[in-house]
């Protein structure tokens, strides 16, 4: 399976540097699960980080620190058990969604459902979207930056067909009209920038597609 | 029996010793080299009010993870400094998120910046060469480019934060980062 749409160099560099906002980083993380090409790009960007660490300023640490640390390493190591993949989804999605079948979906139109995920930050709204097979989503614009990663199935818009792993970045004002392919439901992860003026409790009741007429 | 291509750099072999033999002396040597670097890394980002104690705490947390995770270190995949960098980066992200009182959702930096999945090393040769030369290539970048990369990586600033700090258009920051990375890639290939 070929992933055709990748995050750009800037996004991946910010991710490697740890300076990309947490919400967007979740989108990159999901893409990396599907894309060995970007895993290798990331390795290079990480090794730039390693070099900069070595070249960076060296600041003496407190003298007692080593002793404290050596005392701590005597404690038995508790490594978290690596959780087996249950739904064959990216690790970060499986962590956010303990049980895909128990998710509560909200119907936005006859063919589109959404389930918001709690990621502990409100700068970006992170959600799963499901477009039922053959379903169309009304043409809509975006109020902020939006990242979409296809997780299962596929959808298309006027620009092409998107399959699992494909990473799409849309800027505010982009207009598109996604539709799922005929034979399968489409599951996507979406990360949408929350406009500064709309971050109150009321906003949390809204969602990216609210206000668009179902088609 | 497959051919192993160990890295030549000393830190990576020390780290492998820590991983396979739980070698404390090797760990102490790693600590003496990397702890001050991790502290420098931490101080370049940590807001002033979080103070120096937090930097020492971060150093301790990072080095503890180095000890715990060392058995998973694979010198064919990354240099010790790169591997330690990713641990320090994730710990710093978690520390800052805790400081910003994010709701606790159980989601940690390790879940989002996950260590490599089980992918095979890309190309062993490519790898060791990358690391050996990336430092010298970095020094050859124009200052305006290396400066921005340092801000993005060490100070952990997003492109837009760098843009407002340097009073540059966001597009300029983005294109300098792209140019710098492209140059590094060309130099690494060349
Ligand atoms: Zn990719």
Rg over C-alpha atoms of chain A, rounded to the nearest angstrom: 20 Å
CATH topology of the largest domain in chain A: Jelly Rolls
Helical residues, percent of chain B: 55-70%
- What structural class do you assign from the helix and strand content of chain A? alpha+beta
State mean pLDDT of chain B (0 to 100 scale).
84
Low-confidence stretches of chain B: 1-7
The CATH topology name of the largest domain in chain B reads Rna Polymerase Sigma Factor, Chain: A
Describe the sheet with the most strands of chain B.
Answer: none
Query: Number of domains in the coordinates of chain B?
Result: 2
**Uncertain ranges of chain A:** 196-215
What would you call the structural class of chain B? mainly alpha
CATH architecture annotation name of the largest domain in chain B = Orthogonal Bundle
Supply the CATH architecture of the largest domain in chain A: Sandwich
CATH class of the largest domain in chain A: Mainly Beta
Q: What is the β-strand count of chain B?
A: 0
Oligomer classification: heterodimer
- Strand percentage of chain A lies at 15-25%
Order of helices and strands of chain A: HHHHHEEEEEEEEEEEH
């Amino acid at each position: 399976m070929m992933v055709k749409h990748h995050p750009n160099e800037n996004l991946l560099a910010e991710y490697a540097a740890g300076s990309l906002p947490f919400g967007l980083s979740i989108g990159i993380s999901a893409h990396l699960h599907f894309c060995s090409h970007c895993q290798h790009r990331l390795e290079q960007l990480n090794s730039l980080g390693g070099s900069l660490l070595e070249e960076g300023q060296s600041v003496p640490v407190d003298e007692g620190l080593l002793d404290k640390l050596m005392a701590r390493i005597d404690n038995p190591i508790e490594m978290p058990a690596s959780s087996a993949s249950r739904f064959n989804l990216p690790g970060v999605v499986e962590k956010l969604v303990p049980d895909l079948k128990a998710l509560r979906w909200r119907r936005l139109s006859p063919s589109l459902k959404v389930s918001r995920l709690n990621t502990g930050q409100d700068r970006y709204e992170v959600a799963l979207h499901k477009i039922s097979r053959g379903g169309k989503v009304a043409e809509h614009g975006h109020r902020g930056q939006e990242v979409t990663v296809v997780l299962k199935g596929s959808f298309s818009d006027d620009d092409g067909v998107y399959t699992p792993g494909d990473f799409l970045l849309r800027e505010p004002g982009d207009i598109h009209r996604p539709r799922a392919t005929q034979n399968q439901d489409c599951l996507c992860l979406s990360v949408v920038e929350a406009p500064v003026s709309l971050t109150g409790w009321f906003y949390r009741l809204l969602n990216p597609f609210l206000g668009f007429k179902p088609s | 029996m497959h051919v192993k291509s160990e890295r030549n750099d000393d830190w990576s072999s020390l780290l492998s010793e820590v991983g396979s033999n739980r070698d404390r002396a090797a760990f102490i040597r790693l600590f003496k080299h990397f702890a001050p670097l991790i502290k420098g890394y931490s101080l370049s980002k940590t807001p002033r009010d979080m103070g120096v104690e937090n930097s020492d705490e971060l150093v301790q947390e990072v080095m503890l993870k180095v000890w715990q995770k060392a058995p998973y270190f694979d010198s064919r995949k990354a240099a010790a400094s790169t591997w330690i960098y990713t641990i320090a980066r994730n710990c710093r992200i978690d520390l800052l998120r805790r400081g910003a009182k994010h709701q606790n959702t159980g989601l940690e930096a390790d879940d989002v910046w996950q260590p490599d999945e089980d992918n095979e090393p890309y190309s062993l040769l490519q790898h060791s060469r990358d690391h050996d030369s990336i430092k010298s290539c970095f020094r050859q970048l124009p200052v305006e480019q290396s400066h921005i990369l340092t801000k993005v990586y060490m100070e952990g600033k997003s492109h837009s934060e760098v843009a407002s700090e340097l009073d540059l258009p966001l597009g300029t920051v983005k294109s300098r980062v792209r140019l710098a990375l492209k140059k590094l890639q060309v130099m690494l290939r060349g």
